[in-house]
Design brief:
By secondary structure, this protein is an alpha/beta fold. It has helices spanning about 5-15, 15-25, 30-40, 40-55, 80-95, 100-115, 120-125, 130-140, 145-150, 170, 185-195, 235-245, 265-270, 275-285, and strands at about 30, 60-65, 65-70, 155-160, 180-185, 200-205, 220-225, 245-255, 290-295, 310-315. The structure holds S-adenosylmethionine (SAM).
Amino acid sequence: MSSPVFERLSTLAEPTRARMLRVLAVHELAVGELARVLQTSQPTVSRHLKQLDAGGWVLRRKVGTATCYRVDPSSLEPEAAALWEVVRAPLDEDARDPASLYAEDLRRLDGVLAERSADSEELFRRLGGRWDEVRQELFGEACLLPALLALLPPGLTIADLGCGTGAMLPLLAPVAAQVVGVDREEAMLEVARARVQGLDNVTLLRGRLDDLPIPSEGVDLAVCALVLHHVRELGPVLAEARRVLRPGGRLVVLDMGEHDREDYRQTMGHQHLGFSREQVAALAAAAGLSLATWRLLPPDPRAHGPGLFVAVLARP
Ligand SMILES: C[S@@+](CC[C@H](N)C(=O)[O-])C[C@H]1O[C@@H](n2cnc3c(N)ncnc32)[C@H](O)[C@@H]1O
């Protein structure tokens, strides 16, 4: 093991060190920044950097109180540069797969640089179309819907008709004065109860949609998500929705557009194979509601079910 080639091979054979070199070849970073990119501890990064520094793999410079590191392949000794090229090429190939660790490193690098940069114009010019990935990496997707729901005016009472396990209730609770979830199935309500524990403005009621346990004109808005295709007689259900809405109130319906999956009748007890816009407009009119908007939703590429629509039915 006296030849430097073995030392160099052993340096590059350690995956964290290889990732570090690759990231530092893209951009100069301080120790803390590199730790955040690799999602590992600063002592671990420092330990590896010490070894890389001793082997002449990285360049070091002081920036204020911090030490920044980078890799400049042109400054490596020829044998080290050749070895690095052998390691770097497959890592770059791997990074083409967005799910790979190396692609994640690069996205986190963008995120770390984004936080560092005072010049947002420069930042967004550099990120270009990759901003969605960086946002996903830094903040996830869960922030988008709550931000949009904050558009609702304050002080509303909102009913979730056929709330099931209550997936919508924690989204509605922070932006509403009161939220009422109604469902006829105790098993569903049990899950919903656990979900809304600690949310003081949510009430769960067991009841049927054609005989709602809600006073007349008791809610400003109602939502009925993925329920109506289970209901044989839709007239009484929509009439009940109208009764509990205040004048000017709105019912949001999320359901499937017309489809031909006949087996859903047997396998899931569907009473209707989706709805057309005309059917919903006619049902609304018969209940004294008007179809204010109708929109087919863009399909989710990960979903296998039929396409969905969202309709808003208004009480005059
Ligand atoms: C497919 S789940 C949808 C649950 C929830 N809205 C969601 O989007 O996750 C349909 C729910 O509607 C309820 N449901 C169906 N018909 C009902 C009726 N006539 N009265 C009350 N609840 C009903 C079922 O018990 C079930 O919990």
